[in-house]
Amino acid sequence: MNVDIEASWKARLEPEFEKPYFASLINFVKSEYRQHKCYPKGSEIFSAFEHCSFDDVKVVIIGQDPYHGPGQANGLCFSVNDGIPHPPSLINIFHEIEADVGTPYPKSGNLERWADQGVLLLNATLTVRARQAGSHQNRGWENFTDAVIQKVSDEKENVVFMLWGGYAKRKGSKIDRSKHFVLETGHPSPLSANRGLWFGNKHFSKANAYLESVGKEPVRW
Fold it and tell me: Where is the active site (predicted)?
């Protein structure tokens, strides 16, 4: 099956594209995009990989599924297009960064600037029907993104994995923690953050300290 995905990823994920589940998934997604409004737009479904090649990955952040409101999703987890109001989880992420590393709260919620530095912003499910959170779950995307995480864990070393909330923690269960740095905390959503499970986690400074300790460039959050 010909999937339009960045070359370094395609070379490693080609076996997934040949599996029966993936053919079924693509047929489902094509049907959904024909019959319903879905996000992100088709050309941005694999944006996380376009902005961050396999060779460049040094941090992985795992989200659940894309934003389902108009104009929000751009293929990167937690990210929104320029000019779009910041969703509550993203607001909390930016406040924690400001408190942790001193980066001023940004105007743009577009996280391509992180992805271009080697941060893989991976949603577990890469598509969603408009205004229906979770509507494309359990159709095969999770199998695909599990394979992505497994490839990074198996073939790379010294990658920082940020697992926020129970779903991401379960998703990261196969990471080889003997050669990667895994950070876990609550989800940045208001529900979790307001219970004291997000703020003060200092994941951004911890990630950078680790990256520098293994000779990698820190991320400009």
Answer: 65
